[in-house]
Design brief:
By secondary structure, the chain is of the alpha/beta class. It contains 17 helices and 19 strands. The strands form 6 sheets. It has a 7-stranded mixed β-sheet with strand order 2-9-8-7-5-3-4, sandwiched between helices. It is globular, with a radius of gyration of 22 Å. Bound molecules: pyridoxal-5'-phosphate.
Length: 487
């Protein structure tokens, strides 16, 4: 029994702070290292004084006419949009609003199957029918490649009722496809291209990375300013530059999706990041790319450790890999990503962004430093020096990890259908009523309405055995799953 007044979350946060880890994870401000000093000072001295509501002179996110309007207009200029909307529920709410703005109930949308789970949320809210592009995985690292333009064209010919193309650019792993071509295809069919650019808010500040989605011709881009730049977690932006999207519809959808008490701390962080990056963006990006390339060069010298390259040649769909996303494999040392992440945390006090069966993902940003880079390189060198006999046999890649299950019902139909709970092991042949996604990265293994197969059940069980975290199970023990009662 805890005594009254116990604050479990505060305690957990204090404990985490005391660990004093090196941050190779989101948010991009890296414990404040990547924000402008004036905003940092203000947050240290007066966070409560800044946490206000729509007081005189402070404007209203839902009807902006003062400083919020001005700040959004400046953000539009800096990020290359005609109009920018501040988001206070992450890119998730932007993805919802974007899809609800361009499709009507029952309409079809073209999606990559390795999309973030928020896209299925939008399909549920809007009654949309997903048409999935097949996913091709890198044979060595098993990360999803961006869809080839020919696949997109073929799908549009096969399903002429598709009302919008939705793409992820760059992906969680930093892979960036040929968005210019995709935008051309979309506009030839007179349909909008919506881009989940959650991981690409920094692209606009350097010529060393591919063009942004909007520069490539996308109609709407949704960016998690908190992931790769310095905004507070949840603070994101939706940018529009389009001849075919009605801007007022986006405002209308955001009006019902966003809180009527938007946090001024989150909005102020968007304002601060935009001002900071407008002035120093190029310099900050140069520095973060230099650090990323330094780490990549150093890793090449460590026996048994390798990382996903900066580009994949010969693949028509891909143009680049963001160097700041370093996806590292220690499997030749006999270590899974889960084991490597644990050693890095416990022995070296380094926190990675993601670990999976084969790799760890280390994420750099404008808040990263060469000291952080050296800590990582030294830790990896130390791990490699205790090679195979200590850690075990090399880990061989297992089965493909993004299944493409048969879609039996649309996400909305399955989500609102009568459901029953069955043992996961007995669910093969049933239709999923839940959205099951390992987190991070939040790419669904199963969407509501999809047929549950042996392959998926085995994969979920295997990931559970590795202590992988999941979103979506209503059963906290993850032994049962909700399936559609009759279909
Ligand atoms: C590719 C992708 N899209 C969208 C999102 C949702 O972004 P947010 O966390 O800002 O809501 C994420 C989050 O991890 C993501 O990885």
């Amino acid at each position: 029994m805890h005594k009254s007044g116990y604050m479990p979350l505060i305690e957990a946060l204090q404990k985490n702070k005391k660990r004093n880890t090196v941050p190779f994870h989101m948010p991009g401000h890296k414990k404040g290292q990547g924000i402008h000093h004036s905003f940092a000072r203000l947050m240290k001295t007066a966070p409560f004084a800044l946490d206000v509501t729509e007081l005189p002179g402070l404007d209203d996110l839902h009807n902006p006419a003062g400083p919020i309007k001005e700040s959004q207009m400046r953000a539009a200029r800096v990020f290359g949009a005609d109009r920018t909307f501040f988001l206070i529920n992450g890119s998730t709410v932007g993805i919802h609003a974007a899809l609800l703005s361009v499709c009507r109930r029952g309409e079809e949308v073209l999606l990559p199957r390795d999309m973030h789970r928020s896209v299925i949320g939008a399909c549920i809210l809007g009654g949309l029918k997903p048409r999935y592009l097949p996913v091709q995985l890198d044979p060595e690292y098993l990360v999803p490649y961006p869809p080839a333009t020919e696949e997109i064209t073929a799908m549009l010919q096969r399903y002429p009722k598709i009302r919008a193309i939705f793409q992820v650019y760059p992906s969680y792993y930093g892979l960036a496809g040929k968005m210019l071509e995709v935008a051309e295809v979309a506009h030839r069919c007179n349909i909008p291209l919506i881009v989940d650019e959650a991981h690409g808010a920094h692209f606009v500040f350097t010529d060393e990375l591919p063009q942004t989605a909007l520069q490539s011709g996308a109609d709407i881009s949704i960016q998690s300013t908190h992931k790769t730049l310095g905004a507070f977690t949840q603070a994101s932006m939706l940018h529009v530059k389009s001849k075919i999207v009605d801007y007022s519809t986006i405002a209308r959808q955001l009006g019902i999706l966003q809180s009527t008490s938007p946090s001024y701390l989150l909005m102020a962080s968007l304002d601060a990041v935009t001002g900071h990056m407008e002035v120093s963006g190029k310099h900050l990006m140069d520095n973060s790319l230099r650090i990323a390339r330094y780490i990549r060069e150093q890793i090449k010298e460590i026996p048994g450790i390798k990382c996903f390259g900066e580009s994949v040649s010969g693949l028509s769909s891909m143009i680049a890999v963001d160097p700041t996303k370093i996806y590292i494999s220690l499997s030749n040392l006999g270590l899974s990503g889960y084991q490597a992440a644990e050693i890095l945390l416990k022995k070296h006090r380094i926190q990675v962004e993601l670990c999976d069966r084969f790799c760890i993902l280390c994420m750099l940003s404008i808040g990263s430093s060469f000291d952080d880079a050296d800590r990582l390189v030294n830790a990896l060198t130390d791990i490699a020096s205790k090679a195979i006999p200590v850690y075990g046999k090399p880990i061989m890649p297992g089965p493909v990890n993004i299944p493409s299950p048969r879609v039996i019902l649309n996400p909305e139909e399955a989500w609102f259908a009568p459901l029953r709970q069955v043992l996961l092991k007995e669910a093969v042949g049933e239709v999923a009523g839940e959205l099951i996604a390992p987190y991070p990265p939040g790419i669904p293994l199963l969407c509501p309405g999809e047929m549950i197969t042996n392959e998926i059940v085995d994969l979920i069980c295997e990931l559970k055995a590795w202590d992988c975290m999941f979103h979506g199970f209503s059963d906290p023990a993850m032994l049962t799953i909700k399936v559609v009662d009759r279909f």
